[in-house]
């Protein structure tokens, strides 16, 4: 079975933001990222859970939304409140953690990164 897909959408309206979508159980689990993916492990980014999307949304774009990155993802570890995963995208391989704060989510770039 192939690895599940991910897509990072770049939205320009109504406000500029990104959406991270991870394929799981036949849908794309989705989080809005007002400031995009974290670029440092010292600064987490807010990730707001949004409704799941159909898998065909992984390749969707229009005048206000484009695909910023896409590829596959691998689950590294998971608990009730945190899961660690690697994105295997066009920009390379990066490892992140999504952390459930009980109110929203935080997206964290992990300190340990895969060899490039």
Task: From the structure above, extract its key features.
116 residues; mainly beta; 8-stranded antiparallel β-barrel; 8 strands; 0% helix
Strand content bin: over 45%
Gyration radius, in Å: 13 Å
Distance between the termini: 24 Å
SSE string:
EEEEEEEE
User: What is the number of E strands?
Assistant: 8
Structure description:
The protein is 0% helix and 58% strand. It has 116 residues and is an all-beta fold. The model has no long low-confidence stretch (mean pLDDT 94).
What does the secondary structure layout of this molecule look like, with pairings?
Elements: E1 5-11, E2 17-24, E3 27-33, E4 45-53, E5 65-78, E6 82-89, E7 92-100, E8 105-109
What's the quick description here?
The chain contains no helices and eight strands. The chain has strands spanning 5-11, 17-24, 27-33, 45-53, 65-78, 82-89, 92-100, 105-109.
């Amino acid at each position: 079975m192939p690895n599940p897909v991910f897509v990072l959408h770049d939205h320009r309206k109504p406000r500029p933001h990104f959406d991270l979508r991870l394929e799981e159980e036949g849908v794309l689990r989705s989080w809005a990222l007002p400031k995009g993916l974290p670029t440092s492990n010292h600064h987490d980014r807010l990730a707001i859970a949004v409704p799941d999307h159909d898998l065909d949304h992984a390749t969707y774009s229009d005048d206000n939304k484009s695909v910023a990155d896409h590829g596959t993802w691998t689950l590294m570890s998971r608990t009730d409140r945190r899961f660690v995963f690697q994105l295997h995208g066009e920009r390379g391989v990066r490892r992140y953690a999504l952390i459930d704060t009980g109110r929203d989510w935080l997206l964290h770039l992990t300190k340990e990164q895969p060899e490039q």
